[in-house]
Amino acid sequence: MLGKKLVTAQKRGETRALCLGLGMVACSMMMYFFIGITIVPFYTKSVWTTETVCKVLKASIKDKVFCPNSEGSEDEEIFPYPCLQVWVNLTASGQEVMLYQTEDTLERNPKCSYVPDKLENSKEVKARIETIASNFKKYQTFPCYYDPGGTQTSVILSRLYPSKGLLFAFLWPTLMFTGGCLIIVLVKISQYVSVLSAWQ
Fold first, then answer.
1. Which positions, given as ranges, span the membrane (predicted)?
2. 64 φ/ψ sector (left φ>0, alpha ψ -120 to 50, else beta)
3. Counting Cβ atoms within 10 Å, is residue 49 exposed (0-12), middle (13-18) or buried (19+)?
C-alpha cells in the first residue's frame, strides 16, 4: 500500500515537472517570436552600424519648431520646442555632418538633433535642451555611429537597439528555454530509471 502511494506521488511529481518544463519552453518560444517581430526589425533596419569618433563643430539652438503630441494626431502644431542643431566632424571620412540622438530622432524631425519624448513644461524642455547644448560644447569629442554604406550622410549619438541590447534581450528566453529542456530531460531520465528498476 505504501509502495503504491509512493509510486503515485512520484508520477504526479513527474507530471508536474514535465508540465513546468513544457510551459517554460512554450513561454520562451513566445518571447523569441515577440522579440523577432519587434526588436529585430528595428535592429536590422538601422544603417548606422559602425562606431567612430565625432568632434563637435557647432552646437546652436534655433527658433522653436513644432512636433505632434502623438502619432496620428490631426493637430500637428501643438508641441513647440527649441530646435537644437549639432554639427560634427566625422573622423572616419572628415565630413561635416549633422548629429542626431537616435534613428528615431531623424524620422520625427530631420531639422533638429534632439526631439523631446513627450509633451512637458516648456520651461523644462528649454532648460534640458540648453543643458544638452552646453554638454556638447563642453565635451567636444565622443563616440558616434555612421552609415558605412553612405546611404545616410548623418550620424547618430546612440542606437535604439545596439548589439549588446539585442543579445541581452535574447538572454532571458534562452535561459528559460535551456531550463525547460533540462527539466524535461531529467524527468525522462527519471522515468527511464524507474522503468528499468521495475523491470529488473
1. 20-43, 166-187
2. beta
3. middle
Decide: pTM greater than 0.85: no
Instruction: Supply 119's cell numbers.
Output: 509633451
Q: Kindly give, in sequence order, each residue whose CB lies less than 8 Å from that of residue 169, ignoring residues fewer than 6 positions away.
A: 35, 39
- Grid-cell match 512636433, residue found: 67
Of 173, 146, 142, the closest CA to residue 36 belongs to 173
Residue 99 grid coordinates: 548629429
Alpha carbons within 13 angstroms on the beta-carbon side of residue 180 total 17
List pLDDT tens digits, range 114-146: 888 765 677 888 888 889 988 888 888 899 998
Residue 27: CB atoms within 10 Å: 14
In 94-150, alpha helices (H)? 103-108, 122-138
